[in-house]
Amino acid sequence: GVTHRSKRGKFQARIYKCNNEYNLGLYELAADAAFAYDTANRLFHSKGNDRKQVKLEDTRFVFDWINMSDEECSGAIKEEKATFNFSSPSDFKQARSRELKIRFQAKDSNASFQDAGVPTEGDLVMKVRKEVLSMARMVAANTPDVP
Hints:
This protein is α+β, with helices and mostly antiparallel strands. The protein has helices at residues 30-45, 59-64, 70-73, 89-105, 121-142, and strands at 2-5, 10-17, 20-27.
């Protein structure tokens, strides 16, 4: 899920798998932290993957999701087991845009979101990819082989 860390003024994304908590990083925007959570969740709920084993060939959908059309995304997830903040890339992009507008209307109108430490969408995708792959490696290392 996503938690606001008031002392830092950031949002923390984390996920629980196999009775362990995995940190997915700190983010300036709640929408970005929710995107990180959704990406990790998609990794474990993509068709062909189970909760303990991730097939690398299926990770393309997980990391390219943000660049897909809403139609391409439908049906790629086992919906009965998954809960996501954003059901489509357009949902995420709209939520992020709203949050950026609200945040920067309250601040100096001349400041850009990049000046405030908010990454571009491309930089966000790269950060999330790194965090989620790191988490997947830890899950694999901490999961005993059970027949």
